[in-house]
Amino acid sequence: MESTSINVKDALLELADPERAVLVARFFKTGPGQYGEGDQFMGLSMPQQHIIAKQHARLPLHETELLVHDAFHECRMVGLLIWVNQNRKAAAAQQELILERYLANRYYINNWDLVDATSPHILGAHLVRGDRSILYNLAGEDHLWSQRIAIVSTLALIRQNQFSDTFAVAEQLLFHKHDLIHKAIGWMLREVGKRNPDALEEFLHDHVRQLPRTALRYAIERFQQVRRRYYLEL
Fold it and tell me: Which domains does the chain have, with CATH numbers?
């Protein structure tokens, strides 16, 4: 019998751990005024969520979308992971359908782990195939998670040794006020540096004085101590 979103949610609820849920909710900043305000957790680990996503790998698109709309964080994560798994094996037309639903539901992709576990694999795969204008549209939105999707999705390009879009989106977000964007920029710059240290240093040469301190610290994390001190003291 074909799985439904109810079957998936029931499987998650069977593994719920209320004590762990309290700790996880605190970790993901769900208090009043915090970035994850009001989010609800069951208390599952990421390995548990990956297993359930694989068990329901053939969940239809509309049923998966119901999970992405759910109030529980783990339901949203598993729905998104199902799309990631399906996207890896799908033909181009189906990949575009998944991407369309992913972007249409981006306001439910509302915490950094949901973005980071999925955007390089779904939007990132699209970027590798061609059109990249969506990156700059997302980065230009007044929406934290759309902006994080934009920068983190470029990881797929970095893995292809293509860095220009990462640098361009980083420049577009250079004066962003939220540390979750600063961390994401720094992370992507560090990933560039793993593959091409000269390209990273060229970007730093041009932008080090505008780069948020957190982003800079993340970007130069793998540098030798003397080189790190040089950039931190500029």
Answer: 1-108 (1.25.10.90), 118-234 (1.25.10.90)
